[in-house]
Predict the structure.
Amino acid sequence: MNEEDSLLHKKSKVILSTQSQAEAILDVATLPKNKATKPLDSSVIDEQWAQMSQDWQSQPIIKTDINRLLKQTKQRTVWAKSLLAIDIMATLAMLFAASYMWLSGSKDQATIIYLGGGGILSIIFVIFAIKVRLSAWKINCGSPDKAIEHAIVGCQSSISYIQLIKFSCLIIGPFANWYVFAVTEQSEKSPIVGLAILNIFLVSIWLVSQYFYIKRQAELKQLNDILIK
């Protein structure tokens, strides 16, 4: 009996301790009370809204002269067509000169090779130039409603043409240097002066092309910003 009483006594202690823990856990009186939220001050909201409106109104507005833009696009189209015509005529002239010298039995092999090879490279250049230019000229209809879009396409066409010129300088450079060296060797003269003049000329063309490339990139960015806004 004593053992049973002790077991019951221990069991009752466990039950009481469990109940006391549960009561302590479920005692909501010990939970912190929610603090009362302060109402929003409408004057602060109005002040912030007024400041935002003022900042928005103070932003710069890009204005575009549509007539000037149309005139500029038209002038650049004329210049592009003129340059393309010059490229075609120069290509034909090189091929004609190389063919004439070869058929007439000229012994100036370096010049024949240079003119013939340059003519072939020029044909490739003209093909790409025509492709670049026609893609822009087909879209340009001269409508004032599409003035900005046409200016963007024309600017992109100019950038592609400038990149083509820069790449051509890198291709024609070694070939032209070989020609100057071969000609001066035949005439038993020093090639230093000729090579210096040639490379200064090629570098000048590349630098001028790079200048217009940066300029057209800036114009393209400005036109895109206007179109977005």
